[in-house]
Amino acid sequence: MKPIVAITAGDTNGVGYEVIIKSLLAGYMFEIMRPVIYGNAAVAKKHIATLAEEYHNVTWNLIDTPEQAKDGRLNLITCYTDNLPVQLGTPTPEAGKAALASLERACRDLKAGKVQALVTAPLNKETVAQAVPGFTGHTEYLERQFEGEELMMLCSGGLRVALVCNHVALSEIPAQITEERILQKLTILNQSLKRDFGMEKPRIAVLALNPHAGDQGLLGKEEQQIIVPALEKAKEQGIWAFGPYAADGFFGSGHFSHFDAVLAMYHDQGLIPFKTLDMSGVNFTAGLNIVRTSPDHGTGYDIAGKDQADPSSMRNAVFMAIDVLRQRAEYDELTANPLPFIERNDGEGKPRREFIDFKTTRYNENQ
Q1: Higher-confidence residue: 340 or 191?
Q2: Which residues, in sequence order, are CB contacts of 72 under 8 Å at separation 6+?
Q3: What is 113-138 written as a DSSP string?
Q4: What is the pTM (predicted TM-score) of this model?
């Protein structure tokens, strides 16, 4: 059965509705999932009026619960009132409350198992924080709502960049770069690469905190005292982690292409080179017991209502959510009941594993 994907509309004054509509109306999208948009049809209509004529005949299947979603339709659950003021390109408290209402309803349905994945359109952290003090973004909010420990990861093709620190002021970053935290993020990243991306033995590059990787302590001691010890402990646990690498040369030389993922110390260190290389990537929240993706751009106030928003990042976010769902299910099935085995000696002093075959109740010998 096709998975039901919850898609939040995000900030009602940004490009959320535009990229959702443009991405979903590519015919093949309905062949791989049933979308449920969390927003409001009347508000969406105001956005549609600013788009090319080909989008003007969009119709909605208004539903009360995801179980009512139909194949081949733009299913929509109403999360706020029709008379919500829309001021395209302008951050407003009303838009922040609407974005929050959409997110809260989608999370409730995700917890209840009514939808299988979550894709979030961009919101404005400042306007949402007016309703929820301390709100710093989707990633941190979702960690509080679901099981697991979050890891923000930006993905595009073979490039995956994860962060030790997400939405943290630069002045606070050194205090958060600890051996324990780096090891924790490496562990989550390694497991996600295996479970969510199907990699047997992923290679992870770890960036330094200071310029030139600290120049042997001349420009900072975090590399020697914190990052290197964390890498050593990670290797003891079987994680293939390498570094620390100076961020400028690492990306400038294309060295990142030799690794399956990169762990950056802080937000801009990882995301500036990532978005320079590709602005159609996907933000994936690893480490949680749910699948959540989003486009890697913001609300786009400067182009809201101008029919200029590129839907490719939103489209890629939907594709990735479905890919991760399938890969995670396959991994969980394969690792749920591993075959028991015994160790035997082959007569030459070498151990040999013999896996129990329950169909024949005999042993299958596998070197």
Answers
A1: 191
A2: 30
A3: TS-SEEEE----HHHHHHHSTT---H
A4: 0.90
